[in-house]
Amino acid sequence: MKYRTLHASEFLQNERDINIHEATVDVSCTMHTHDFIEMGFIIDGAGTHIVDNQSYHIQTGDLFLLNADVPHEFLSDDGEPLTVCNCIFQPVSIDVPFSGAKDFVDVAYHYLFQSLRGAEGPSGYIRITGAGTLEIRQLLDNIHREYQQKSPGYMQVIRSELTTLLIFVFRLYRNDREQVQSQPLFRRLVVNNALSYLQAHYAENITCRRLADRSYLSTSYFSRLFRDETGGSIIQMLQKYRMDAARELLENTVYTIEEVASRVGYFDLKHFYRIFHRHNGCTPGEYRSRLQK
Fold first, then answer.
1. How far apart are CA 159 and CA 89, in angstroms?
2. Percentage of the chain exceeding pLDDT 90
3. Cβ-based neighbours of 259, under 8 Å, separated by 6 or more
C-alpha cells in the first residue's frame, strides 16, 4: 500500500539541518512515511501510535524514534488533543565531533538509523515509555530554545544537544529489557561494529576492553555477547583476520616472513609461526613455496 510521503526538503534547508517544532493531533494524523529521521516526545495527551500495522499506546512523557520510510499514524484518545514535540533530521547531521562519544555514536548510528529489518517488533522504531522524562524534556527544551533564538553557533549547539539526547535514549533502551524493541538486533549490531573495527585494525594491539569501551559495555558482558553472536572469542576472530592478511601478503608481496608477521600484528616470530601453522597446516615459508610451484 502506498502512503503519503513527507520529504526532508519540506522541513530542512540542507542535509545537515535540524528542525524542531510542536505539532497537535486533534483526532488523527493519517498514515504516512517520510525520508528523514523523526524523534517525537509526547508533551501532553494520550493516544495510539500505529507503526507498520502495530499499535502502541502513547502518553505524556513517552518518546519515540522512527527511521525513514516507516509508515505510521497517530490517533488521539477520546478526541482530546495530543501534543508532540517533533525533532526531524538526517543521520549525517549528527556525524560531528563529540567529546568522548564518537565511537559510541558510530554504534548508535548503525542501530538507530540503518534500514535493518528485524523479526522482532517493527523495523526502525524505538519507543521509550516514561523513562528519563525530565532529562529528555530538558534536552529538547534546550534544542528548541537554540532553534528559536538562532544565536551565533546555534547549529553546533543543537547538534551537540541532539547527540547527547540520542546517547541518553540509547542508554535508556539498553538498560530496559522490557521495551518493545529488538535486543537481538542491538547485540548483532554491536558485534558487527566490533568485527568491522577488528578487520580495519587487526595489526594493532586489540583487547576486549578496547572493544567493549567503544560500545559503552562492560568487558565481561561484551565478551559473552561476542562469543554468543559469533561462536568464537575475540582472540580467535582477531587471529582469523591476521591470518587472512598474512596469506595475502605472502601471495602478493616479496616481504620477508618477519616483515609479514610484523605487518599483521605479530612481533614474536615463533608465535607467528605457531599461529600460522595452526590455521594453515604449514609454515609461512611452505605456504609461499607452494604458490610458486
1. 10
2. 35
3. none
SS3 track for the chain = CCCEEECHHHCCCCCCCEEEEEEEECCEEEEEEECCEEEEEEEECEEEEEECCEEEEEECCCEEEECCCCCEEEEEHHHCCEEEEEEEECHHHHCCCCCCCHHHHHHHHHHHHCCCCCCCCCCCEEEECCCCHHHHHHHHHHHHHHHHHCCCCHHHHHHHHHHHHHHHHHHHHHHCCCCCCCHHHHHHHHHHHHHHHHHHCCCCCCCHHHHHHHCCCCHHHHHHHHHHHHCCCHHHHHHHHHHHHHHHHHHHCCCCHHHHHHHCCCCCHHHHHHHHHHHHCCCHHHHHHHHHC
Q: Does the 4-175 domain belong in CATH 3.40.50.620?
A: no
Q: Please state the CATH superfamily assignment of the domain spanning residues 236-292 in this structure.
A: Homeodomain-like (1.10.10.60)
Task: Give pTM, 2 decimals.
Answer: 0.54
Task: Tell which wins on pLDDT, 170 or 180.
Answer: 170
Residue 196 has a pLDDT of: 78
Contacts of 190 (CB under 8 A, 6+ apart): 107, 111, 215, 217, 222, 225
Mean pLDDT, to the nearest integer, of 4-16?
Answer: 88
**Cβ atoms within 10 Å of 59's Cβ, excluding its own:** 14
Per-domain residue ranges of the chain: 4-175, 183-232, 236-292
249 pLDDT more than 90: yes
- Average pLDDT, integer, range 233-249: 95
Q: What is the percentage of the chain residues whose pLDDT exceeds 70? A: 81
Q: Give pLDDT, residue 86.
A: 92
Please check whether residue 226 is in contact with residue 188, taking contact to mean a CB–CB distance below 8 angstroms: no
Which pLDDT score is estimated for 240?
96
Average pLDDT over residues 110-128: 51
